[in-house]
Amino acid sequence: ARAMERPFWSGALIGGVVAVGAACLQLPVPWPYPDRLAVIAEEASRINNEEPYDATEKWARNGSQAGLHLLNPTRVAFFNDKIRGTIESPFHVLDMGCGGGLVSNALAGLPNYASIDGVDLSAPALSYASMVAEQLPGEPRPRFQNASLYTLPFKDGAYDAVVMSDVLEHLHDVPRALSEAYRVLRPGGILVFDTIDRSVATYIVAILGAEYIVGIINKGSHDWRLFLRPDELGRGLEGAGFKDFAYEGFQPSLRALAELSAFSYGLLSAESMSGGWGVEPPSPLMVSYIGHAVKPR
């Protein structure tokens, strides 16, 4: 799917809905940054990239990141299909911003993955990822280390595939991270990703609903202004040198939303949740999107 063109009035509509929602909850009005692909000073954003992830138990299935466990099977299946359809095995993979290693450890259980490395800046997240990796029945066991996405400690062309899952919406320098992903990919390698769109729908669902009304995730986990529209990500990827950018909508089922809401209120255990996410054609109402891009040969 190509990046959707949005009508001229969409900016005004987004601004109006965002302003009303923010006012109702006494939140500062999050007017979009003039250029999402510019470097954004950390002090200029309102995102907490540490506290929501600062304890190992938060990454467990029954922790505050429970929603990531629900969506993980669908995104891993999507990533695996794209990787297998683009490059030949065996696969050497880097998971940039791996968090608790949900994607890395799931890929390790699939055939033909020769090595998987994960990097993140959160020590508790990496601790959880390593703990799970140690319990995997076979090889490869993913290797995790503390490193910045802006200065990866790997050689040029070291990987067949790079994963950027649930991380782009946290970055203050998107072009620099994309350039690093491009650098460590071999020619013909693939970047797979999922992230959150910036729209009226995502402000209502991901900020007002998830953080402030239902409380599925911690307040401050996201800054709506840091969300990336598909056309912005497409420009960033093109600027880094990628080609063949494509994406699909990545949506939670109504059951998943209901279960996560009940879970957040203590009415349902994590083990009882079975709702999931689906991949579907892009639309103005999509919350997240998932896709890939390729480094030219």
How would you describe this protein?
The chain has 297 residues and is α/β, with parallel strands linked by helices. Helix content is 34%, strand content 20%. The chain has an eight-stranded mixed β-sheet. Helix 1 runs parallel beside helix 6, helix 2 packs across helix 3 and helix 5 crosses helix 7. The N terminus is likely disordered.
Assembly level: single chain
DSSP helix count?
A: 8
- Reading the helices and strands in chain order gives HHEHEHEEHEHHEHEE
Outline type: globular
Strand content: 15-25%
Mean pLDDT: 88
Helical percentage:
25-40%
Q: What is the radius of gyration computed over CA atoms, rounded to a whole number of angstroms?
A: 18 Å
The major beta sheet can be summarized as: 8 strands, mixed
Low-confidence stretches: 2-15
Annotation, overall tally of beta strands: 8
Widest β-sheet, arrangement of strands: 3-2-1-4-5-8-6-7
Structural class, by secondary structure, is alpha/beta
Amino-to-carboxy terminus distance? 22 Å
